[in-house]
Amino acid sequence: MLRVKNLQVHYGMIHALRSVSVHVKEKEIVALIGGNGAGKTSLLTAVSGLIRTTSGEVALDGSDVTKEKADRIVRKGIAHVPEGRHVFKPLSVEDNLLLGAYHRFTWRTASVIRGEIERVYALFPVLGERRKQPAGTLSGGEQQMLVIGRALLSHPKVLLLDEPSMGLAPKVIREIFEHVARLRAERGMTILLVEQNARAALSIADRGYVLETGRVVLQGSSEELLANRDVQRAYLGRDAER
Amino acid sequence: MPFSSILQFIVSGVTVGATYGLTALGFTMIYNTTGIINFAQGEFVMLGGMLAVFSMKWGGLPLPVAVPLSVLLVTAVGVGVDRLTIRPMRGRPTVSLVIVTIGVAILLRGGAMLLFGKDTHSLPPFSEGPAIPIGGAALLPQSIWVLGITLAVLVAMKLFFDRTITGKAMLACACDRKAASLMGINVDVMVTVSFAFSALVGALGGVILAPITLTAYDVGILLGLKGFAACILGGLGNPFGAVAGGLIIGVLESLGAGFLSSGYKDAIAFVILLALLFLRPSGLFGKASADRV
Fold first, then answer.
1. CATH number for the domain including B241?
2. What domain range is B30 assigned to?
3. Closest residue in chain B to residue A69, using alpha carbons only
């Protein structure tokens, strides 16, 4: 469904991505793991069109979207939930969700979209309780649910999730990951997940890629990666000698 | 001092205050989309009046044609300001963009001076007819135009930001451009539209005020600053507050000029502005911003 081929990204002199190729099949959850500065976020922002690529190709369902701008790429079906959540703080929870459906909002679709917003409230009841509150007053976990809900309202074919666990308590992280797993199980969502928390990410993913300094150094099924000694030592915090 | 004079001060204060309110609405429009305070807003007001005057004088156009033409031209100027000065600076800090608007203001003012000269001009009133007496004070027919148009623009803008998805998308651009573009919002287009609208609103203020007070190449400075004071008074970003702030400043100014001396007239707006920035920086109707990170 989503295919990234030989993608290169530069920030000025810094070579952030060096010929990275990854792919995500339909209804698959794929995890991208790696340390700080490995290029995980660069990859997602390049795919969603927020940053320019130097070379390489991003294709969705076989059609090339590499040179498109971010606001066009959403329309094609790639929804990006950025790192740090980026809710529209002064706007209400409801307006945040509504804006998720911005690109397909017309007077004719308005009532359908209202119904979809209610479905997001059914998925995340806490958002329904706070629908009139400014999004900036929500807790971190609630904001994370809000941005996931907002992304769903764009009717994506592929959901890009960047560090959904960032800054959250362990209990909330578990809850968020359960929701992500359910999105695939119940809605058949295709998900590319970037995480520092490698164990949590691999526990719900089918496959994973390990990025280091802008390169894919390892790839395989989640079980293979969880069992891999290098991965264990570097990202799972387990002593390889044991 | 007789009651009728006090009433007269209030009536003329409300009229002038309404145009401060319109200017403030222009500020609000751009602020809500970009977070920028557009210091060229006063020049849009000046251009509105001056272009109407000169399309009558040079073009021989009748008033009902000159007014919409002038508003249209200023709207185009607003688009030009965005495309030529703001868009190339995209991604720079807000402060830099605010300074750019100060430069634009100086440029527009200078351009108007070279083109139109330094004389002061006036437009004929929109509708003929005697002043309407109310309780000993006289209400000019033009004042009714001013109040009516201000009210209409206020209601339209309030509905736009509260009820339409485009209005909400504009607000989204101001709080988070990156996230806005991820929603499929074309941020560049939204910014251009906000400049167009705010130039339009400013020009409207300029043409409806010109028959009451005189207009000249340099009226934009004071009008802009007072409109800004009105914005701060009402709470930045809030259309209702902007107009209320404008009316309050207009009335206080007019009363001050009547009771103290007309020499203090312009000082009043700035005393209010300073006092507010010290005491209540979020404005009379502004909510103190609170968010978690």
1. 1.10.3470
2. 3-279
3. B181
Residues 176-205 of A with CB under 8 A from B: none
Chain B residues bordering chain A (beta-carbon distance below 8 Å): 165, 168-169, 171-172, 175-176, 178-187, 289-292
Q: Give the HSE-up count for residue A13: Cα atoms under 13 Å, Cβ half-sphere.
A: 0
Cβ-defined contact of B178 to A50 (cutoff 8 Å): yes
Name chain B contacts of A48, Cβ cutoff 8 Å.
182
Q: How many CB atoms lie within 10 A of CB B89?
A: 12
The verdict on a CB contact (< 8 Å) between B290 and A137 is yes
Q: Per the CB < 8 Å rule, is B181 touching A71?
A: yes
CA atoms within 13 A on the CB side of B145: 19
Does domain A2-235 correspond to CATH entry 3.40.50.300? yes
Digit-coded pLDDT (tens) for A152-207: 999 999 999 999 999 899 999 999 999 999 999 999 999 999 998 898 999 999 99
Closest CA to A1 of A210, A164, A206: A206
Q: How far, in Å, CA of B269 to CA of A220, rounded?
A: 68
Considering the domain boundaries, does residue B238 fall inside one?
yes
The answer to whether residue B258 is domain-embedded is yes
**Which pLDDT tens digit goes with each residue over B65-80?**
999 999 999 999 999 9
Count how many domains chain B has. Answer: 1
What are the extents of the domains in chain A? 2-235
Q: Is the ipTM of this complex over 0.85?
A: yes
> Would you call A70 and B182 a contact, using CB atoms and an 8 Å cutoff?
yes
Whole-prediction pTM: 0.86
Q: Is residue B133 part of a domain?
A: yes
